Amino acid sequence: MRETGQSAVRPPVMEDVAKVAGVSHQTVSRVLNNNPNVSPGTRERVEQAIAQLGYRRNSAARSLVTRQSQTIGVLAAEMSEYGPASTLLAVERAARDAGYFVSIAGLREVTKAGIAEAVRHFQDQAVDGIVVLVPHPVTSAALKELKLQVPVVIAGAVGEQGLSGVAVDQQLGAQLAVEHLIELGHTRIGHLSGPQAWIDGAQRIVGWRKALLAAGLKDDLLRHGDWTAATAYEVGLELATARSATAIFAGNDQMALGLLRAFHETGVRVPEDISIIGFDDQPDSEYYSPPLTTVSQPFTELGKQCIEVLLDELNGAEHGVSRVVEPRLVVRKTTVPPQSTIN
Amino acid sequence: MRETGQSAVRPPVMEDVAKVAGVSHQTVSRVLNNNPNVSPGTRERVEQAIAQLGYRRNSAARSLVTRQSQTIGVLAAEMSEYGPASTLLAVERAARDAGYFVSIAGLREVTKAGIAEAVRHFQDQAVDGIVVLVPHPVTSAALKELKLQVPVVIAGAVGEQGLSGVAVDQQLGAQLAVEHLIELGHTRIGHLSGPQAWIDGAQRIVGWRKALLAAGLKDDLLRHGDWTAATAYEVGLELATARSATAIFAGNDQMALGLLRAFHETGVRVPEDISIIGFDDQPDSEYYSPPLTTVSQPFTELGKQCIEVLLDELNGAEHGVSRVVEPRLVVRKTTVPPQSTIN
DNA sequence: AAGTGTAATGTTAGCGCTAACGCACTGGCA
DNA sequence: TGCCAGTGCGTTAGCGCTAACATTACACTT
Questions:
Q1: Does residue B95 sit at the A interface (CB-CB below 8 Å)?
Q2: What is the C-alpha to C-alpha distance for residues A177 and A181, in angstroms, rounded to an integer?
Q3: B70-168+299-326 and B170-297 share one CATH topology?
Q4: 3-state secondary structure of A3
Q5: Nearest nt by C1' to B39 Cα
Q6: A120-A125-A126-A131 Cα dihedral, nearest 10 degrees
Q7: Please, which residues have CB within 8 angstroms of residue B24's CB and are 6 or more apart in sequence?
Q8: What are phi and psi of B73, to 5 degrees?
Q9: How far apart are CA A188 and CA A335, in angstroms?
Q10: Is the C-beta of residue A13 closer than 7 Å to nucleic acid chain D?
Q11: With bands split at pLDDT 50, 70 and 90, how would you rate the model's confidence at B1?
Q12: How distant is the alpha carbon of residue A198 from its chain centre?
């Protein structure tokens, strides 16, 4: 009944290719899997048949027998932020180039339960590996507890719980920023940090402090923010009155923007009265008024390396690898030598 | 040999559940698929066995026989921009809530070849439907040519080539912006547009023009940009000299930012000397100096509705549906009545 | 001449699931 | 009483692929 010859409806399967090429379906499989035991002539004929029929291997059938899905799960939080989004982009690209599918799951809440739910989603899909874009301590802990059977790489957290990780050196970035300020002659350098609960936020505080102490300066000007421009703006309003620092290292560009607005509104001139340096180098920061001096993070490189590590582990390399990539100082217009010495 | 009783290695399969519950594997399947012909008692026992063993259905096997992968492909370009990223987030959430996996593919280049490649990727994965986050005319054309066998929904383009689409009403948004300026008393209203090659860019030009003509004003102050702050900055430098407009509608917030910097550097005061209004309402725009009046796009709603339409089509609803969601004016500090009348 | 290895292919079984069918058992109705 | 239509299950046959084994042909040894 349904033996109506051509594949008007049903896409061609291996057997169809085999028939056209005059071989068995297994030989077609061998050609597809680059098995060496196929004569050049046969390989040629099979490849022609594949091209002629427009054959594409059924990945569900393949997954069923190989127990590999050829897909990598990416667990992301804050996906609409510049950093995570850029990393995701790079991860997707590298994974697809390596022949993998990329499945995403946005984290609903940064809790163990939220992570467990997302991981279960990936398990249902039988992903071959997971890249995690949630640099938060609870992530590594939750992941460890779940005892995953597949390799996991965390972007932004290295050496956590024996899990593999690739991270931008946040301490170095903070030191670069602070040292730049010190070289300009600043001695009263404050830090408006990100939340300490996030690894990046905590590490930047450490770097800021290290650079200060190494130069014999005091680390007493620390305020905590929450990555948002809104909170930074509020803090900026207070800082405008206090004027205890001649330079401020903001935990990210958004907070620097909030500071910029607060100072602009209160008549505190940047950089003449106070220098500001951000972190991330998101595309807009070059067009703030004035253009923001900041620390550039290599998000693309970060994403690429996450996949490199993951693929290595998929090919049997040992787990628990750590890699670090370096941020870079970008000097623009918000940092100059201190004009007056207010103490 | 490998009959070592428990599932120390191999995860449980349907047969294992069946054995524990004392039924056939088919009955387990029936319970899982909510087949009504299962007695309450049996259903209960099966569900207990499932819980006890921690059984999870193998999706590859299921896909193989049902020819459905339970996954939705999302084709995205500019994934690191705020709008697309937010939409992606909403799409992912809605899809996962509906029990689907979400696979992404970033578009390498906005050309027919690039789209064809990404679509092939999705076909290999046998996705059940595709959401496209590339509001570019070439997208719909390429998609149409490919004669996809699965439903497709384009975010940001409605009524194109008979394909389904959900879009924010860009014309309305532009009109809202321009009418706001007109109400304030402006008569010389320029537009720094996005690329006309993008649907959004073109539609905003149309809306700007419509509002102007409806009020009896001239539509002669049009400049083309490319969404970037960099180009907008260059244009802004020229505009600062020309001073032909008392208000400028920027095609997006980033371009508004570029303008802001150019005017700031050249001593043109915003909003006293010139009013500026943006488009998108990206989170930072509230903290520009001064805070930007702009048009807010409901990206989350957009993403949600894309999945709604897609699911409807997956359930047999007709294809080629169009839905429109509305943007909203957000008045902040960059727009005031014209202070002097320069012509 | 018989034996041995190996390259190139074919044949068979089965991955875990659903669809289709089969078969008891019930209850309602003529 | 007999018939029929459900209900609640079990049994069987694949989905399209790869892994494992079987088979052939031929070169090369002893």
A1: no
A2: 7
A3: yes
A4: coil
A5: D8
A6: -70
A7: B18
A8: -90, 135
A9: 14
A10: yes
A11: very low
A12: 14
- Indicate the pLDDT class of residue A9, thresholds 50, 70 and 90: low
The residue behind tokens 């349907």 is B14
Structure tokens at B92: 């992912």
Per-residue pLDDT tens over the stretch B121-150: 999 999 999 999 998 989 999 999 999 999
- Helix spans in chain B (H): 14-21, 25-32, 40-53, 59-66, 82-97, 112-124, 137-146, 170-184, 199-214, 229-242, 253-266, 299-314
**What distance in Å separates the CA atoms of residue B44 and residue A170, rounded to the nearest whole number?**
53
| Residue listed under structure tokens 């537009």 | B191
Phi, psi values for residue B39, rounded to 5°: -70, 150
Percent of chain A with pLDDT over 90: 89
The string of DSSP codes covering A97-133 is HTT-EEEEEE-SSSSHHHHHHHHHHHHHTT-SEEEEE
Interface check A332 vs B, CB under 8 A? no
Bond prior to B151 in cis (omega within 30° of 0): no
| Nearest partner of B280 among B323, B237, B251, judged by Cα | B251
Q: Residue B132 forms beta bridges with which residues?
A: B75, B154
Q: Which residues contact A107 (CB under 8 A, 6 or more apart)?
A: A75, A76, A77, A114, A115, A118, A134
Q: Which of A270, A273, A246, A272 is nearest to A258 (CA)?
A: A270
CA-wise closest residue to B296 among B82, B16, B23: B82
Q: For residue B271, say if its preceding peptide bond is cis, omega within 30 degrees of 0.
A: yes
Which of 3.30.70.20, 3.40.30.10, 3.40.50.1000, 3.40.50.2300 is the CATH number of A70-168+299-326? Answer: 3.40.50.2300
pTM of the model: 0.93
Nearest to B203 by CA among B262, B134, B155, B157: B157
Q: Which of A145, A83, A137, A77 is nearest to A105 (CA)?
A: A77
Choose the mutation target among B32, B149, B235, B287 for the interface with A, i.e. most A CBs under 10 Å: B287
What phi, psi does A84 have (nearest 5°)? Answer: -55, -40
- Note the CATH number of domain A14-57: 1.10.260.40
Q: Alpha-carbon distance B290 to B334, whole Å?
A: 6
The structural domains of chain B, with segments of one domain joined by +, span 14-57, 70-168+299-326, 170-297
Q: How many angstroms separate the CA of B11 from the C1' of C23?
A: 33
Chain A closest CA to B197's CA: distance in Å? 22
- DSSP conformational letter for B177: H
Looking at every residue in chain B, the average pLDDT score rounds to 93
Rounded CA gap, B229 and B259, in Å? 8
Tell the residue number behind the tokens 């899809």, with chain if given: B95
Dist CA A140 CA A157 (whole Å): 8
Q: What is the pLDDT of residues A36-71, one digit of tens each?
A: 889 999 999 999 999 999 999 999 999 999 999 999
Domain B170-297: assigned CATH number: 3.40.50.2300
**B13, burial (CB in 10 Å: exposed 0-12, middle 13-18, buried 19+):** middle
Q: Which residue has the tokens 């004669």?
A: B147
Tokens 């992530």 belong to: A139
Tokens at residue B104, please? Answer: 């992404």
Tokens of A236: 């900026």
Q: What residues form DSSP beta bridges with A308?
A: none
Distance (Å) from the alpha carbon of A302 to chain B's nearest alpha carbon:
15
User: Which of A96, A125, A290 is closest, CB to CB, to B59?
Assistant: A125
Of A60, A284, A290, the CB nearest to B64: A60
